Amino acid sequence: MRYMIFSSVVASQKQLLRICISALHIFVSIFSTVLRWTAGECKNTISPNKHRDEKTVQSAIPTSVNYHFTRKCNYKCGFCFHTAKTSFVLPLEEAKRGLQLLKEAGMEKINFSGGEPFLHDKGEFLGKLVQYCKQDLQLPSVSIVSNGSMIKEKWFQNYGGYLDILAISCDSFNEETNQLIGRTQGRKNHLDNLYKICKWCQQYKVAFKINSVINTFNADEDMTENILQLNPVRWKVFQCLLIDGENAGEAALREAERFVISDQQFQEFLDRHSSISCLVPESNEKMRNSYLILDEYMRFLDCREGRKDPSKSILDVGVKDAICFSGFDEMMFLKRGGKYVWSKADMKLDW
């Protein structure tokens, strides 16, 4: 009888031990899986492409960053893919803190955009950021993209010395076409502003650049004569791009479908202007994942899926963690010529 009881107790203990060991195995397995997920989260989120070099992605450096610090704009361009969904602008000191983080992470070039960057605080906020980046952070290149409508000569007098490149968006040299596109406000003449700003850039030693979005309204236009006359350091020519939630889809503030052109139409425009040496073509394929874009909250925007999916703010998690969720393809950035002579000190321009 005692032997039976003893055997039963031993058997129970062995069974309990097996249960404990089994539970331990399960716990270790779950814990290991969580660790793998945590370690691989950045890699898996960056790119669904299994053939992509994950080590290269993880070590991506924010060499060139586009900071859209405001979404507000005084123009209503029908194809705009960064629309006024919010009116938020970071406090100046917070914006400077973010720029400092980017510099520490390897940023060499900052491009301020919008919206219309000269609209907020009549350009003073922008001017202070430009001065900070060149004077305090000593970045090799500081640039701006603007529609040109709000720029005054006094701004050049105060801040022009800190600016390397000023890009003005101009989609047509026909004022009626600009009005059809929505690149207009009241009685302001977009082309008059363009030529005036070109002269100011020459006067205050700022490299002048032109950006054009090619769409159904200007695809057949020949801009050769005007571009040669203005002589920009670069003429960036974009293919009209649809971004869900921005200029396409139910939640969008614009309906850009009627502006979209085919790849063939875009190529025909490029062929027509092939004699212009400063032309830099940007097809939809090149644009989607070769830009590092920061929104008004300093979140990187991932555009690979045809929309803008935000990361967490670099102010909260730092640049290294946030850039993992940017969808940025550093190889495509280099392939499209994203790194060029972008400091006016190195351009050797004839002022």
Automatic annotation (TrEMBL):
Subcellular location per the Swiss-Prot or TrEMBL entry: Endoplasmic reticulum membrane
SUPFAM superfamilies for the chain: Radical SAM enzymes
BP term (GO), one: innate immune response
Principal subcellular localisation of the protein: endoplasmic reticulum
Keyword Ribosomal protein: no
UniProt keyword terms in alphabetical order: 4Fe-4S, Antiviral defense, Endoplasmic reticulum, Immunity, Innate immunity, Iron, Iron-sulfur, Membrane, Metal-binding, S-adenosyl-L-methionine
Domain annotation Radical SAM core: ranges: 59-279
Cofactor: [4Fe-4S] cluster
Pfam family, one: Radical_SAM
GO cellular component: endoplasmic reticulum membrane; lipid droplet; mitochondrion
Membrane topology: Peripheral membrane protein
Alphabetical list of CDD domains matching this protein: Radical_SAM (cd01335)
Similarity comment text for this entry: Belongs to the radical SAM superfamily. RSAD2 family.
NCBIfam families cross-referenced by the UniProt entry: viperin, viperin_w_prok
Name the UniProt record assigns to this protein: S-adenosylmethionine-dependent nucleotide dehydratase RSAD2
Organism of derivation: Echeneis naucrates (Live sharksucker)
